[in-house]
Design goal:
Helix content is 31%, strand content 24%. It contains 4 helices and 5 strands, in the order αβββββααα. Strands 1, 2, 3, 4 and 5 form a 5-stranded antiparallel β-sheet that branches. β1 and β2 (44-53) form a beta hairpin. The longest helix has 18 residues, at 104-121. The termini are far apart.
Amino acid sequence: MANAGVEMGRFIPPDPSKGDPNTIGGYRAVHDRPAAFEGSDGASYSVEIVTDESGDRTRPFAGYLLFVRWGHGDPVASGHLETEFLSYAHTEEEARRMVGELSLNDVKAKLDALIRGEKSSQTTWWDAMRREGRS
């Protein structure tokens, strides 16, 4: 049973004519795959630009980043992190484009901020009290 319709890894050469590879949207267009980062927690993350309804009638679409955490040495997703809405627009395409203009450095900074926030929300109450000097 040869490959049974499963596409094996493929190499597609980057096409810099498709965008700025230093932005999250341009990276996706140039490399034909999502960008990936090592988070400050040592885990691997891939990132996608996602749009949703914003709840704002004047700008009904919003864009944000979804980071998928991958298991250590395992090709199975082990969690995810999401930013707040980063753009509001009249169309889904416009909201996606606006988020896509973020630099890769800004996207990495957002990932690391989310990781820090996740770790701080996992703090036990007794550790929080100790830090505040109430032990």
